[in-house]
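Example (one chain per record):
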Amino acid sequence: MYKSEFDNLIRSQKISNSFVFFGESAFLIDMYAKMMTNIEDANIINFYHDEYDFNSAKAHLSQGSLFGDRNILIVKSSKKVPKKELDILLDFCKKNPDNIFVYAYYGSDHKTYNNKKAFAKTEAVAVRFFHPKDFEAQNIVLQVAEEKNVTIDKFTVAHLLKIHNGDVALAVNEIEKFRVFDRAITTKDIDTLVFGLGEVNLDDFIKKLLNKKEFKDDLLSIIDHGEDEIRILTSITAYITQLYMFNIYIRVNGAPNALEILGYPAPKFVVDAKAAQSIKIKPFTYSKLHELLLDSELKMKSANIDKGAILLSTLIRVQKLL
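Predicted structure:
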C-alpha cells in the first residue's frame, strides 16, 4: 500500500499493530515509525542496523508486560530481516494485539515487500513511502512548524525547500532552529540564516575532495548545518559511481553521451567537466574507492560508532587513493 491509503486507515482507526515500512523516503519511514509507536508508558525496544537479535526480539513480543503496559519492538535496518524470522515476529503481534511491531527497512530491495502476497498470511500493514511531492513536502514542514510553534507561511516553506533541493529532513531541521524567534519567519530570514545543502553545494564539496584540496572546514560547516554523515558518504559514493560510468563509456565509445550514461540530457559544460574528471581516475582506483566507501558506510551504520570520525578518516583515505 501507499502513503495515501495508509493515511486513510489511520483516520478510520482501522489500523493493525504490526507494520513494515520501506521505500525511497527514509524521512517518511522514520516519521511514521515514530507516529505508530508514540504511546505513553510503553515498554519499547529499538534495534538499529546490526543490533538486531531475533531471540531478543521474539522474547520481547512473545510476553505480556509485567506492569500491564504495551510492548513495542522497532527494528530499523538497511539489511533484510530473514523472512522466516519476520513472519514469526508478525505472528506474535497477531496473537497479542496489545503489542506493536514496526519493521523499518531502509534498503533498496523494494520488490521483496512491495508484494501483496508477502504478508498475506499476517495482519501486517506494508507501506511503501516515496519521496514526498512538492505540496506534500510543504505540508509536512508546515505541520512540523505548527507543532513547534514556529510561525511560517507556505511561500517561505517553499523557499526553504528550494534551498535544500527538496530535502524534507533538512528543512525540518531548520524549523527546529527557528524556535528561538518569537515572530513570523520570512524568506529574508531563510536567505540570511540558512546554508543551502542542495545538490550543487554538495557537488562542489565533492569536487574539492576529489581534486585533493583542503576540505575539512567545508565538511564541518555542512555537518553543523544539519547534514547527516551517512548521506554525505552515500552522495560521494553515488558521485564516484557516476564518474566511473563516464569513464567506462568513454573508454568503449571514445566520447561521452549524457543521455545514454545518465538517462537524461545534460548541458555540454556539465558533461565535459564530468568526462574530464572521470578519465583522471584509473579503473583500479575506482574499485578501491568503492570498496573503501562501502566498507565505511557499513561501519557507520553499526551501533555506538562515531560517524564523524569515520567520515573524516574515510575522506582522508579517499584523497590518498587518488
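Caption: Strands lie at 18-23, 43-48, 71-77, 100-105, 125-129.
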